[in-house]
Amino acid sequence: MEQDQDGSGGSGAERSAVLERLQKAGGLSPGAARSVAFETGVPEAEVYGTGSFYSLLARPDTKVRVCNGLSCRLAGADELLGSTQRAGLPVETCSCLAACDAAPAALRDRALLPRLTQSDVESCGGDWTRLTSSAATASAPTYCPGPVFDLAGEPDPSAPAFQKAIEIGPDAVIGELEASGLQGRGGAGFPAHRKWRAVRTQLDPTRYVVLNADEGEPGTFKDRDLLLRRHDLVLEGLAIAAFVVGAEDVYLYLRGEFETPGRLLEEVLAQAEGRFPGIRFHVHYGHGSYVCGEETALLEALEGKRGMPRHRPPYPVERGLWGRPTLMHNVETIAAVSAIVLRGGAWFRGLGRSEPGSKLYSVSGHVERPGNYELPMGVSLDELVEAAGGYVGELKAFSPGGASSGFLPASERTRPLDFRSLAEVGCMLGSAGVVVLNQSVDMRAAALTQLRFFEAESCGQCAPCRIGTHYLREALERHGSTGDSPDALAHTAEVAWQLNEGSICGLGQTAALPLTSALKYFPREFRA
Ligand code: SF4
Which residues have C-beta atoms less than 6 Å from ligand 1? Predict the structure, then answer.
């Protein structure tokens, strides 16, 4: 792996280094912003303003973070938080850690502690550096084989698809992608071949490929498993993409909490020297911000700035990283490329039921075996949960695509889990992070968990999102408090409309869905 470089020259490189330098300085501890400003030439106020955007840098004294995602809360995260506080650990809550299959999860510095128990907390003796998860190794997940990603299989370093891509050439690769019908698996569902063709045909000869591994949608944890278990497919897909669009530099942006997959990738890249001639890989880590999963916010973060989404157009395929044409894909999308090149687009398309291809579904909550399951695109919730060992208790509701998708009632259990069928009921597949809720769940409380998440993660750039997420969370709390006003939720539909119409990015556009869908399908739970 070569050292990081910047396509825009000196000042851009210094700017890009701000976040890494702040991390090395231990976050925004006293004096850190000043010394990073001195090293980089970036004004101190700007260094501080940038660092304060990212939760892992902004509060350096916090060493333990307990996930308060919905699946972790169902598994006892609130009680776990109470134990850590009583033990005197420097703790706070955090947004989803992409470990919903190992709930409740926590973070020690940047290391994930899956299935953390109260007895783990007690045995560390109040010393956060000794906090470890004893249950993590006791119940390692099992992986099911699958035709495209095969999480149960072994990494293959021989890169046969890359060789074949060189043999058949860029246009034929794009042709196979088009035939496959592959849509972006990060949530947007945009046809992959159109992005590839758009970048390849730009006049600017400097192009980039970026991997979006900033997986943060509550309920989703498939990218983490792909990076850990099938990094060969991820790297090969990136190399093919770089070859096809004519890029020499590939940037892998991993969320800051993906320390273990990231270190593994760095090792694999060091061993892969020369496997992909003419292509340089650069690994970057995020610093704690959900909205950086939005592609233009991620580009801002890569450039060393606050991760605020950009207005579009221009789209990244025209002007992306440092203003250059950029092809960006989610981990699952890029990992599917190898199989498509090797076995053909028609083969991949035929794997799907209602839409093309197979899909990695993450399922957690009230199911017997939470985990990632590769199944035909368009299976129903019942089929997915059958693969996951069955329901725990009686199904009441589910979120088919993370917090952003809102809730559906049990009566939708046979609806195909695909882009089109879920859109028909005002819902969405998103990144297919399915959270299952049984009859014990209070839907008002579930909606409140999601609203808190959106309020905490709004970047604050758009007034409707900044104010609307705060308003809805407060209104729902007011509604549920003793002696509440029954009219507290009277403006929900209006605020939801404002959020949808006036927000730049998907966070604001979907932030009201958990509440509006819960009100629609479970109105009795909102009556006094
Ligand atoms: Fe930021 Fe919200 Fe606007 Fe997205 S919608 S850019 S998160 S303020």
Answer: 291, 308-309, 458-462, 465-466, 503-505, 507-508
